[in-house]
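Hi V.,

Quick status before I head out on leave. The structure for the redesign project is tokenized and pasted below; the design run finished overnight.
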């Protein structure tokens, strides 16, 4: 069930001294850990078994993206993706420096027979399969947070071709500011078999405990000129219709990390999430209407963002950054 491959790469961005999470990931022999620093990172950052790239060292890389990405921004993580891809990565694992891997940290195989939520269910709250606690993933439309989706009634075992696995996080999982401002109770999810979601059934997913296979690497693009709390959610909402087009599915698996969240101001988070609340449903509809099965993933990714620009969900300069991302991928022959 566990994916082990010498070309597994873990990518983290950090402005902190090596954290507990970074130290534990660095000791995993079957994974190569890349940490991307920023202007706020400690000057003498060092951790054994880690390929660390400071802001200065990033300038030495032959990537178009390096010079166009803003500093002190989560999107600089994309430099780590490019390094991993250039290294020949077969899989890239996204996580954060405040995630602590459990002893059983791993991901299921990408191809196999899994419990699958029916197609055409729209947005669902995947957390309801893992807990009875009233909690929802960041990016779920707010009008649905009180909905009982009864997902157990819509599961069937089937052969799946998973393109991305999202592992959950215990402790302080990925929720929105509405949850934290009104409850903020820790959550520890129940263990269960992996779950895959069918075409036109949608769940937000993030960059905190996530693995993606090589064929879908272009979809790692992190929107740069949207708010911080929207960027990885928007990435996931753009990715899902494109994945469906090529026969790939999104899967979820148990909480294999414990998140000890870095300090946040919940009101600032809330303000940052407003564009997400306003646009999450529209994004899936817009992307679905502007992608084509006979085109490449790269073409469809650009087409999707052009359509989002037309609807004023992104800024014009986003397309310039996306173009540089695609140029760099082409340069390293992905």
């Amino acid at each position: 069930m566990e994916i082990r491959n010498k070309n597994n790469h873990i990518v983290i961005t950090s402005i902190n001294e090596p954290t507990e999470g970074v130290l534990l990931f660095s000791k995993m022999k079957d994974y190569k850990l890349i940490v991307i620093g920023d202007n706020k990172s400690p000057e003498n950052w060092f951790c054994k078994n880690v390929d660390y790239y400071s802001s200065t060292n990033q300038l030495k890389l032959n990537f178009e993206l390096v010079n166009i990405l803003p500093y002190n921004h989560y999107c600089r993580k994309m430099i780590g993706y490019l390094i991993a891809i250039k290294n020949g990565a077969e899989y890239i694992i996204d996580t954060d420096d405040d995630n602590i891997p459990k002893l059983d940290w791993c991901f299921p195989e990408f191809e196999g027979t899994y419990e699958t939520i029916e197609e055409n269910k729209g947005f669902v709250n995947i957390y309801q399969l893992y807990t009875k606690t009233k909690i929802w993933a960041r990016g779920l439309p707010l009008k649905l947070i009180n909905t009982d989706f009864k997902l157990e009634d819509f599961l069937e075992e089937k052969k799946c071709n998973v393109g991305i696995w999202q592992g959950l996080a215990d402790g302080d999982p990925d929720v929105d500011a509405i949850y934290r401002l009104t409850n903020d109770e820790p959550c520890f999810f129940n263990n269960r078999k992996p779950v895959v979601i069918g075409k036109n059934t949608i769940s937000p997913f993030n960059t905190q405990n996530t693995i993606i296979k090589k064929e879908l690497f272009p979809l790692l693009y992190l929107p740069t000129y949207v708010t911080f709390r929207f960027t990885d959610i928007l990435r996931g909402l753009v990715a899902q219709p494109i994945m469906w087009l090529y026969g790939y599915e999104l899967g979820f698996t148990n909480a294999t990390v414990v998140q000890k969240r870095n300090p946040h101001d919940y009101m600032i988070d809330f303000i940052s999430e407003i564009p997400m609340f306003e646009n999450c449903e529209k994004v899936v509809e817009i992307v679905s209407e502007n992608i084509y099965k006979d085109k490449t993933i790269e073409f469809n990714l650009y087409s999707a963002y052009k359509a989002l620009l037309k609807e004023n969900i992104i800024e014009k300069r986003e397309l310039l950054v996306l173009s540089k991302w695609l140029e760099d991928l082409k340069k390293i022959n992905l």
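Above is the designed sequence. Residues 100-331 form one domain.

G. will cover questions while I'm gone.

Best,
W.
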